[in-house]
Structures are given as C-alpha cells and as structure tokens.
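hi! just following up on the protien thing from before. the input was this:
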Amino acid sequence: MYNLFQKLLAEFFGTAAVIFITAGAICADESLHLQAQHGLGTLGIAIATGLSYAVMITAIAHISGGHLNPAVTIGYWVTKRISTLDAITYGIAQLLGATAAAWSLSAIVSETVWRPVGLGAPDLATDFTRLHGIFLEAAVTFLLVFVIFATAVDPRSPAKPLSGLAAGLTMTMCTLVAAPFTGAAMNPARAFAAALIAHHWTNHGVFWVGPLVGGVIAGWLYNSFLLKEA
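and the predicted 3d structure came back as:
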C-alpha cells in the first residue's frame, strides 16, 4: 500500500511527463513550421498526447490510480472513490507537475518557438464562442473519464489491463476532433501551466469549466447507471 506522499509524487511526475510531451509536440510543430518544413500537424500532436497519457497511466496506475488530470480526479471524488483531502492534494500535485513541465520547456526551447504557441496553451478558434468551447471541452472530457471508469474503475471490465491504452487512444481521438476548435485541453492542469508560464490567460475559464463539468457528469453517470448490476 502506497502512502499519500508517494501517490502525490506519482501524480506530480506523471502529469509533468504528459504535459512536457503534449506541449513539447506543439512546440516541435511550430519549430518545424519556422524552418519551412512540414510540421507534425494535428495528427502528430494527437498521437504524442495519447501515447504520453497511455504510457504514464500504465506506469503509475498501481501507485496513485494514474489520474494525471483534475477532471479525472473530480470524477473519482464525486463518486466517493477519493476523499476531499486527497482530491485537493491530487489537484495541487497535478498543477505543480504541469507547471514544472511548462517551465522546463520554456527553459529548454527557444522563446521564438514557444512564444507564438503559448507553450501549447489551449485557446478558442476564431468565431468559436466560449459557450461552444465549454460544451466541446465538456464533451471530449466526458468521453475520456467515461472510458477510464469503464476500463479502470469497473471491476467487471475485461479491458482493465488495457485501461491505460484505452485512455490514451481516447485522448488521441478527442484531440483530433477538438484541437482545431479549442486546442483540446481536456485537462485544467495543462491550461493553467501554460497560462502561468507564458502569461496566456485568454479564455482560461473555458478550460476549467468544460473539463470539470465533463468529468463530474461522466463519473456520476457511469457510477449511477452502469457500474451497479441491474
């Protein structure tokens, strides 16, 4: 059995790794464009995001559950799978891990590369309203948390050993859909870290409200209607 400190440490490093790869892929795409080369594109960024999530969940799920995202943690909290204190400390560890990753990128990568993309900060497309952004972020985060509950939480799931891969693939497919419109945050920690280091606070509330609402609804719905036998 792991103690709270070990769990928080796992969430810190796991979230840092995911944000470092996700934001790093966005910076790499920008760097290639600046060199007049073909960039990674949305597909490349989506794959990097999904792979990092799948790998880190698989690596630390046995320690902390592998949340790596306040929207996942709030889904666990609303269904009473984690205490209020643990949920708050998980969230803090995730925010600190994401911030450490964003700061590291800003120190490693040239500012001429990361500044134009705000260290991977999510933002809304032109003519895409905040309300639409909240709905889209809520929808894709709902899918992510739903899949996590269906594969990692549900004790009857035959896919439990593959829950990390399932979550990573969900991140990939949701990024492909949402990235052109909102940047596909699905994770308040990612939005916060980029905003703090790059000072990019535009539409920041969207990337808290949408994912947290999506996480709450997904957790509550699966727990209330699908987890228990009829």
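The mean pLDDT is 97.
The radius of gyration is 17 Å.
cheers
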